[in-house]
Fold this sequence. Notes:
Elements: H1 9-31, H2 34-41, H3 48-76, H4 78-98, H5 102-114, H6 118-129, H7 135-163, H8 167-185, H9 208-216, H10 221-250, H11 254-274, H12 276-283, H13 285-305, H14 309-324, H15 326-337, H16 343-371, H17 376-393
Helix pairs in contact: 1-6, 1-7, 1-8, 3-4, 3-5, 3-9, 3-16, 4-5, 4-6, 4-8, 6-7, 6-16, 7-11, 7-15, 9-16, 10-15, 10-16, 10-17, 11-14, 12-13, 13-14, 13-15, 13-17
Amino acid sequence: xxxxxxxxxxxxxxxxxxxxxxxxxxxxxxxxxxxxxxxxxxxxxxxxxxxxxxxxxxxxxxxxxxxxxxxxxxxxxxxxxxxxxxxxxxxxxxxxxxxxxxxxxxxxxxxxxxxxxxxxxxxxxxxxxxxxxxxxxxxxxxxxxxxxxxxxxxxxxxxxxxxxxxxxxxxxxxxxxxxxxxxxxxxxxxxxxxxxxxxxxxxxxxxxxxxxxxxxxxxxxxxxxxxxxxxxxxxxxxxxxxxxxxxxxxxxxxxxxxxxxxxxxxxxxxxxxxxxxxxxxxxxxxxxxxxxxxxxxxxxxxxxxxxxxxxxxxxxxxxxxxxxxxxxxxxxxxxxxxxxxxxxxxxxxxxxxxxxxxxxxxxxxxxxxxxxxxxxxxxxxxxxxxxxxxxxxxxx
Length: 396
């Protein structure tokens, strides 16, 4: 069918509503597997490494594929790439649900990772339809989607897993297919032909390292990428060991850990929806980003020194408030530094860098946890958050 272009604010609002739903279903689909993935892996292996391999394979595939998907979005439009991405996710979830062997589970995460352009392409769509003034607020929809999705996804996965361990994967596939229907029938294209890349796509354009290098050479982009990578590295190194740390230090029970996760999710969703745009309008994008990074350093140390688990919950709320500002502010700064016809490539590169840090951060966190001290990820993470803030302060 012929999709009309975005021409008025009401159409933009409807389109952003659809994009939010697609991102929300993406997060629910990812997090719905959290409660049951380890149980499915344990059918075939009792090694903890095999459980972490699900995340590593997905992140590694996404690292190599995301810049290429971003480039394709700049050339052919956002809708085709979004459609391929959500259909790929549906296929990956179906394979995961069928299972039957450990390599099948790994194949499922590989398929989903290769086509995992949902979030980066949705981000590029948001940038296409946003004015510079609205960019932080509209990019905040990503955080709202993550916050709400991380509340409902694990809860839904746990409930469905009580019926059948494979059921959450099939429900996730159904959510992806529902997103495909929205894209096909209701989502307008955000990138008109006159704003698309016209240069032919070369093989080197599909190389993630080349794409990252080309984007990093843009004025001031290198320091933004440095700040973003340092933030993701510290964030992932802490989060990957956090549950183990709470269990070991406070003898935290599953319901207490669930309460802490729900508090984080509610905070992220609420702060993104209510406060990000106001704070950015008052303080500016870079100051807000720097304050958020320094705040995370302070609260990482506070959590490290907390005498009881019940102090962890309000500290989690405070820390989540700080972290909620980081991505939309750095993302908006990066968007303003890239040409309009390369916004998809930019989002692909930032997704690839995030995937790379999703591999490096947990590996580092696990190593320092085991070989230095259980609190080492928090202590070193605080230092890295400060370095990320310094990178942004020194940005020209």
